[in-house]
Amino acid sequence: MPDLMMLGMLMAAIAIGFWLGRRDRRPDTQPPAPTSLSRDYFVGLNHLLNEQPDRAIETFVQALEVNSDTVDTHIALGNLYRSRGEVDRAVKIHQNLLARPALDSEQGERVQLELARDFMRSGVYDRAEKLLEALLKQAQNDCHRRDGRRLLIDLLEREREWEAALEVAHSILRQEGGIRRAAAHWHCELAALDITEGSLALARKRLKQALSTDEKCVRANWMLAEIEFDHANYKQSIRLLQRIPRQDTGFTPIILEPLGNAFRMLDDESGLVRHLHQEVERAPYTTTVISLAQLIERRDGVEAAASFASQQLHRHPSLRGVDYLLDLYLLDADERETERFNLLKRHTQQLIEARPRHRCHRCGFEASLLIWQCPKCRHWGTVKPITGLEGE
């Protein structure tokens, strides 16, 4: 990061030097000014080469008068301050630019965007929101309008203003898949509030809107299934849960417990067995294998369950699978074997407990519980159960 910052400073210094050089060559430039500015420039460059970026930036800012030729450089210097965490200085530079009547509309829109980013970085969301709303009303540049809309959506999401975010994002949902996925989760957030307030009809409507916005929104079917289960509509709950692996097979492990509960409420164990057999053939996750092995154990005995689990582990090794197989072996073990199996069991348990259960497929963030928005990269629906050798 420091190397990138120094590179940015160097590029800014080159830009300043280029502008000063052009200014020196202008016939209408007053003689004393170039000498003074050039001296300031070389002083700033000296600070930069001596790894004194603070003093270098201050010198460059003082050296450059604000005009149409230097706007880009001032913006770059302000952004450097923001990247260094010195947001107050970035705000000062960008506000100073915005107050200049010489800016054309394109430059003014760029400065507004950067100033909004400054305010967001410092947590002053209300001022950022006002800037961005004004920009969206008056922006003539399509790129600036698009960037401003994305920034405003990000701000409203941070403030958990789901309705407002949906309103701002409405016009670009079809073009941008990332926004569409996020919008589906905003509908789910609103539905969760409706459920808390007892407005189930409105919650159902919102969750259907989520699926209409993004047909692969696992969370919407998950929440609908919970509503149906709570109202004893077990068959409908099962149908909704069974849609989830078709939306995203990576979420298969999370449906097994509620699915099993719904089948048991219907006293339909054979239906659950059929479903689990289908899932094992399609995607043999450890959780699915263990769920099916437990049913086999209850119906056909320990030996049959151990045989099934062992076959599946041979095809798809898993730490949790080994741990479950040890449980089965302990049921038929003699005293000496019990001691050995318990030793192995302690090791597998320690390894399992030390491992996270979920991981963001976007940034790698790990968590013990399922969360719908990654707190690190802030993408929606990317945190999934960890599968494979050490996962579900």
Automatic annotation (TrEMBL):
Q: Name one GO biological process term.
A: lipopolysaccharide metabolic process
User: Main localization of the protein?
Assistant: membrane
Q: Which Gene3D superfamilies match?
A: Tetratricopeptide repeat domain
Cited InterPro entries: LapB (IPR030865), Rubredoxin_2 (IPR041166), TPR-like_helical_dom_sf (IPR011990), TPR_rpt (IPR019734)
Q: How does it sit in the membrane?
A: Single-pass membrane protein
Name the GO cellular-component terms.
cytoplasmic side of plasma membrane
- Residues on Cytoplasmic side: 22-392
Q: Please indicate which superkingdom the organism of origin belongs to.
A: Bacteria
Q: Which Pfam families match?
A: TPR_16, TPR_19, TPR_7, Zn_ribbon_LapB
The UniProt annotation places Fe cation binding at: 360, 363, 374, 377
Q: Where in the cell is it found?
A: Cell inner membrane
Q: Enumerate the spans annotated as LapB rubredoxin metal binding domain.
A: 358-385
Molecular function GO labels: iron ion binding
**Which UniProt keywords are listed?**
Cell inner membrane, Cell membrane, Iron, Membrane, Metal-binding, Repeat, TPR repeat, Transmembrane, Transmembrane helix
The Swiss-Prot or TrEMBL record describes its family as follows: Belongs to the LapB family.
Tell me, in a sentence or two, what this protein's role is: Modulates cellular lipopolysaccharide (LPS) levels by regulating LpxC, which is involved in lipid A biosynthesis. May act by modulating the proteolytic activity of FtsH towards LpxC. May also coordinate assembly of proteins involved in LPS synthesis at the plasma membrane.
What name has this protein been given in UniProt? Lipopolysaccharide assembly protein B
Supply the source organism for this entry: Cobetia crustatorum
- Lineage per the UniProt record: Bacteria, Pseudomonadati, Pseudomonadota, Gammaproteobacteria, Oceanospirillales
